[in-house]
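Morning. Coffee machine broken again, so started the prediction first thing and wrote up yesterday's gels while waiting. Chain of 477 residues, entered below exactly as on the submission form.
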Amino acid sequence: MKFSYKILLSCIITMAVALGIGGYLFVNDVFEASMEREMEQAADDSNILQFAFETAALNIPAKYDLLQNSAVKEIGANLEKRGQGTTRFLRLSDENREILYSSEGFVEDKDLLASIEKQTRVYRVIHPDEHYYIQTGTEITALDRTLYLETMRDVTAVYKERTRGFLVYRNLMLLILVVSSVIMFFISTWLTRPIRLLTKAAKNMTDGDYSYRAEQVSRDEMGQLTQDFNHMAGVLEKNIHDLEAEVQAREDFIAAFSHELKTPLTAVIGYADLLRSRKLDDEKHFLSANYIYTEGKRLEAMSLRLLDIIVTKRGELTAQEIDVEVLFGYLKDMYGEQHKNPFVFQYEPGRIYGEADLLKSVLLNLADNACKASEPDQPIEILGEKRKEGYFFAVQDEGVGISEEDCQRITEAFYMVDKSRSRSRNGAGLGLALCSEILKLHGSALEITSTLGEGSTFAFVIPYKRQPAVPEEEAVM
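Came back before lunch.
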């Protein structure tokens, strides 16, 4: 059952019970008030008849010492005549509670008569036929005789009014319930609209539309729930896109890794088969062995780079203060005056916080990439300067440059801008990926600025003091 129908049904049941109980109490209260008035009226009638009987008994000529039964019957008949046209009945009984006079239609049972005691008046409501009566009984004394007077007052009209009141109230209650049900249907539909919108949004997201958002139609708790749901959906969409990107990156990594393995392995297998199957002269034997050695070293370098990346991702930084002179001195020793590309070093003295060997690896990879992107005799600049946020390092070249699209992916493992150029210089597309992971450990990120045909600049900033690692989503590529 729909939630809106549950609300509607709950309201209808609650209203029906409340109106039913309230109506019963109201009609019954009116009925009891009317019956109380009738009881008082019946008591008044009984008092009047008692006084009238006693007065009539005093006016009878004193022929006998006691009031005769015939006189009692005569007085009863006279009282009956005076009450003609009313709904009043009477009955007179002697000391032995034997009936002396009874109005036509008076009940025959003597239950009330037997319960009459001295100087008391008793009541009861009887229903001998289709009518209701209030029967009263009292003791009277006349001319030294003790008699019993009973009356019956018709109160059928009061019971009919109660029945009519229940009928009217029942019809009114049904009308109220019908009208209220219609109103409550629209109210419940309006109240549950946010839930329907959330259900629709959840269904669309289940079907794969992660960009769908639920419409916020109120600012109450349901509106807050919708807002929280949309926020959750946004986070979920981002996580799914991140997972898809990660899966795609892994597939690209596997494809690139397989491709990078295939080329040297093909050469190794081919030249090894040549050495095994043929007898070659010394020169061809040397060339074949040299190809095998060269491709083997390439595989070794690629495996070591991959291992470095994995270790860097899972490792922790063992940092300490470093004099930047140590880093630049290392690069000077590696790229001296005999190198095919002239290196220019411009830097300011300073001290930074990090791990020297890892930072040397970053600078060495950036310098090596600059050499691969440059033609012989094109200068390469290694820069260093103090800045407010930390010490700034930059490697600039005047080489082939990188497109904006390639700049977004160049730090991915095995991604190469010019694959033929990189392979010809024993590149595998792992150097910048390693640099990116090392800089994350130092709370930094690689910044790439490049123009096709004009050259590139790879820069990063190392803080002077210990900083937390930069989350992947905040790292600037």
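The chain has a mean pLDDT of 82. Going to sketch it on the whiteboard this afternoon.
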